[in-house]
From TrEMBL:
SUPFAM superfamilies: Ribbon-helix-helix. Keywords: Toxin-antitoxin system. It comes from Scytonema hofmannii PCC 7110. GO terms for biological process: regulation of DNA-templated transcription. Signal peptide: none annotated. This is Addiction module antitoxin. The lineage of its organism: Bacteria, Bacillati, Cyanobacteriota, Cyanophyceae, Nostocales. NCBIfam families: antidote_CC2985.
Length: 89
């Protein structure tokens, strides 16, 4: 993977925070810290997209005619059958 050099400007208080993270031993240098922030941001945004897709899937599926009792019975049956709530077997 090729690397690109970037120059950023941050306030002193943020610089102190970055230095503290490096001093804690969690990161070896500024670049490691910022790469981790970017990876976490990418993961968070992907999780948001996945969640929105699931919400849309639920909305698109319409209103259920099942009662809460029916739903709970299906959940219990699924747990007994495969030990989890996954719809994939």
């Amino acid at each position: 993977m090729s690397m690109m050099r970037k120059t950023i400007t941050i306030p002193d208080v943020m610089e102190e925070w970055v230095k503290a993270q490096i001093a804690s031993g969690r990161y070896g240098n500024d670049s490691e810290y910022f790469r981790d922030l970017i990876r976490r941001d990418q993961d968070r945004r992907q999780a948001e997209q996945d969640l929105f897709a699931l919400i849309q899937e639920g909305l698109d599926s319409g209103v259920s005619t099942s009662t809460v009792k029916d739903i709970m019975k299906r959940v219990e049956d699924r747990l007994k059958h495969n030990g989890n709530l996954s719809t994939h077997e």
